[in-house]
Amino acid sequence: MLGMADKEFDGESFNGPSLMATLDSLTAEQAASEATFEGYSAWEIAIHCAWYKHFIARSLGAKVELFPYPYAEKNFAPIPAPPDDVAWKTTRAVLRRAHHEAMQTFRDASSEELDAMFSEWGVPFREAIAWLCTHDVFHNAQIRTMGVPGLRQPKEH
Q1: What is the mean pLDDT of residues 27-51?
Q2: CA distances (Å), origin 118, targets 57, 93, 99
Q3: Is residue 19, in this structure, part of any structural domain at all?
Q4: How many other CB atoms are there within 10 angstroms of residue 124's CB atom?
Q5: What pLDDT digit, counting tens, does each position of 60-106 carry?
Q6: DSSP-based three-state secondary structure for 117
Q7: pLDDT (average), residues 11-33
Q8: Considering the domain boundaries, does residue 111 fall inside one?
Q9: Which domain holds residue 73?
Q10: Pseudo-torsion of CA 104, 119, 4, 138, nearest 10°?
Q11: In the chain, how many domains are there?
Q12: CATH number of the domain within which 47 lies
């Protein structure tokens, strides 16, 4: 399952472009745009995805040293100001690092640790990790279909 999560995140996705391929195709201006059907920006969603990777890995008791999380620790944090190319590149780097640290944490966890209750959610860590493995796929599809400037392309016939 973690191998598939890696592919959907930044590899050869089964479902089309991976989350990172989608995000890497956007400029800072496109990523910051809230002129979407849902009112979210791709940038906000990227930070949201990074937060949950970091949050679950930290809660599981990561054996790797996690980087200091640079954004507000909440469901949807504001994007950095100014929303320029440097900040967008940094956000994508944070997301990649959060993914790698989370996946390493999950791979290093014992069966007992995975079966332990994730008290914040009232489920075993194993279930939270299974959810997280679908999270990138969901948000990639969301970004690709919510009308982000630069991703609005007519269907090819």
Answers
A1: 96
A2: 11, 27, 19
A3: yes
A4: 15
A5: 997 777 889 999 999 999 999 999 999 999 999 999 999 999 999 99
A6: strand
A7: 92
A8: yes
A9: 2-123+131-145
A10: -130
A11: 1
A12: 1.20.120
